[in-house]
Amino acid sequence: MPTIVFASPKGGAGKSTSAVLLACELAESGRNVTIIDADPNRPVSKWAKRPGKPPSLTVLDGVTEDSVIDTIESAGRMSHFVIVDLEGTASLMVAYAISRADLVIIPSQASQLDGEEAVKAVQLVRKQEKAFGIIIPAAVLFTRTSAAILTRDQRRIQKDFVKGGVSVFEVNIVERAAYRALFSYGGPLAALDPAQVSGIPAAIENAQAFAAEVAAVLRTGVRPAKAVA
């Protein structure tokens, strides 16, 4: 079953948020999903300990460089989807996990620093392709973007990605209070209380669009990045 790896050498790029959003959407559509929380801060494991985690979603932590490949392969035998949330640094664990990926998603905020780190993640994927003699689809996912406008920085960075042959998801993960609230209250977006959290319907629509694009990429392959005006 597909293994989807979230990777970025930079902490705070949105890996854990994006991983939880995708996992919940898949689980709520009837799939068995395993998230492997390989971040030393264990953000996904902390989320999972709060109420409301979908019953078909399993979270595993405590993985090491020595165990990460076996953990991915074991989870793949039990789940429709395996999602790996990696630490925000370059390490052997990151390299090993990428080598087992059917898709690598590289979250990046629309800043010059994040863009440079996203390119490093792409380069690491290419090194694993060369080392193992395989093709590993990978694409950048812009996170914490504005719902209203495509900023000048994002436009410039995306143009640089296009020139460099780096693929980019069409869907962005927009900055939403509901995404932050997930880690405070637990559960999926639909379980949040609209009296306490604003913008839940828009957040759900965004997460569903992201999950749909991931499913399309797994079916048809990563598409080249589109030029922006």
Question: What would your notes on this structure say?
Answer:
With 229 residues, the protein is of the alpha/beta class. Helix content is 45%, strand content 16%. It has a single domain, classed as P-loop containing nucleotide triphosphate hydrolases (Rossmann fold). It has 8 helices and 7 strands. Helix 5 links the parallel strand 5 and strand 6. The mean pLDDT is 91.
Mean pLDDT: 91
- CATH class equals Alpha Beta
The name of the CATH topology is: Rossmann fold
How would you sum up the major sheet?
7 strands, parallel
Return Rg in Å.
16 Å
Helix content: 40-55%
Number of domains: 1
Q: Give the total of beta strands.
A: 7
Query: How big a fraction of the residues is strand?
Result: 15-25%
Count of runs of 4 or more consecutive helical residues:
8
* Cross-sheet strand order for the largest sheet: 3-2-4-1-5-6-7
CATH architecture: 3-Layer(aba) Sandwich
| Protein structure class | alpha/beta
Oligomer: single chain
Could you list the spans in which at least 5 consecutive residues all have pLDDT below 50? none
CA-based shape: globular
Distance from N terminus to C terminus (CA atoms, Å) equals 38 Å
